[in-house]
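Worked example 2:
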Amino acid sequence: MNFEKILDKATSDLAQYGWSFMYVDADQVSGMESFSYTIGFEQSYGHPEIITFGLPAEAAHGILSATAAAIKEGETMPLHEPVENIIGGDLKVIYKPLDHRSYADYLSVAIEAYGTKDFRTQIMLWPDKEGHYPFDTAYSIKAQLNASKVISASEKFDAPALATKLN
């Protein structure tokens, strides 16, 4: 599918649903992991867009659809705070802002749909099967480790404080 058709679908989704889901498959040449993101949360709900890394399209769509429904009902996904009931079980996710310098690399359809880079986006980070988060040395999900590299430079993990909140 060419870029214009992708943009047309996103625009149609925005008009019909208030948001659109974008999945970008892994690029073996550049080594970029698969990622998914929303378009329309900022415009429709006054909430930052959300980007996830390393999930299959179906799983990411399910999580972001449930997140969209929660946001539409008035919930927020705050930065830096563990959030429950997003990915199931007792697992908590943490949101960190995407560095604006990375927008062009990851959010091309959203930039075109909005006509600007002037919108907020936060990265959803989750624990691995052993319960470790990207700030733990034992963390094992490569895509999430890569995601942590594009967190806004002003946002450093405060591992001890965050670990306390997670327990």
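Strands lie at 20-24, 35-39, 49-53, 94-97, 121-125. DSSP finds seven helices and five strands in the chain.
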